[in-house]
């Protein structure tokens, strides 16, 4: 059985392969230590994956949100959240993989 840490490392590798950019988490919007990966899917609309610091599969969040610019991610609250998914188990991970596939289109 794969560890949750290994699953998370696979997810991070996939995000990098799909042209997601790791964003510095310097603001108060996300938990301290969270890793933020973002990709612009339309003008000022971003697909974000937030992986919380304990690197546990139960602590991955996916969202589609509007920010005023790429540089405000991690610093400011989003203008609007259009979609949110909290990944808590293997079934959620399946949906996560589908969104990664969709983000490449």
Mind sketching the topology for me?
Blueprint: H1 4-17, E1 21-23, E2 35-42, E3 45-51, E4 60-66, E5 80-87, H2 90-103
Antiparallel strand pairs: 1-2, 2-3, 3-4, 4-5
If you had to describe this structure to a student in words, what would you say it looks like?
This protein has 105 residues and is an alpha+beta fold. It has one domain (4-103). It has helices at 4-17, 90-103, and strands spanning 21-23, 35-42, 45-51, 60-66, 80-87. It is globular and about 30 Å long.
> Which series of helices and strands comes N to C?
HEEEEEH
Number of domains: 1
Residue-averaged pLDDT, rounded? 80
List low-confidence stretches.
none
The secondary structure category is alpha+beta
Helical content (DSSP H or I, runs of 4+) = 25-40%
Keywords, please?
105 residues, five-stranded antiparallel β-sheet, 2 helices, 5 strands
Question: Could you provide a short overview of the structure?
Answer:
27% of the residues lie in helices and 31% in strands. It is built from 2 helices and 5 strands, in the order αβββββα. The chain has helices at 4-17, 90-103; strands at residues 21-23, 35-42, 45-51, 60-66, 80-87.
């Amino acid at each position: 059985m794969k560890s949750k840490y290994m699953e998370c490392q696979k997810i991070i590798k996939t995000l990098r392969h799909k042209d997601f950019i790791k964003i510095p988490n310097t603001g108060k919007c996300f938990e301290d230590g969270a890793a933020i990966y973002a990709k612009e899917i339309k003008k000022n609309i971003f697909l974000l994956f937030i992986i919380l610091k304990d690197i546990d599969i139960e602590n991955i969040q996916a969202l589609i949100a509007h920010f005023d610019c790429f540089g405000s991610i991690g610093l400011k609250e989003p203008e609007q959240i259009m979609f949110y998914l909290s990944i808590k188990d293997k079934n959620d991970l399946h949906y996560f993989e589908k969104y990664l596939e969709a983000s490449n289109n």
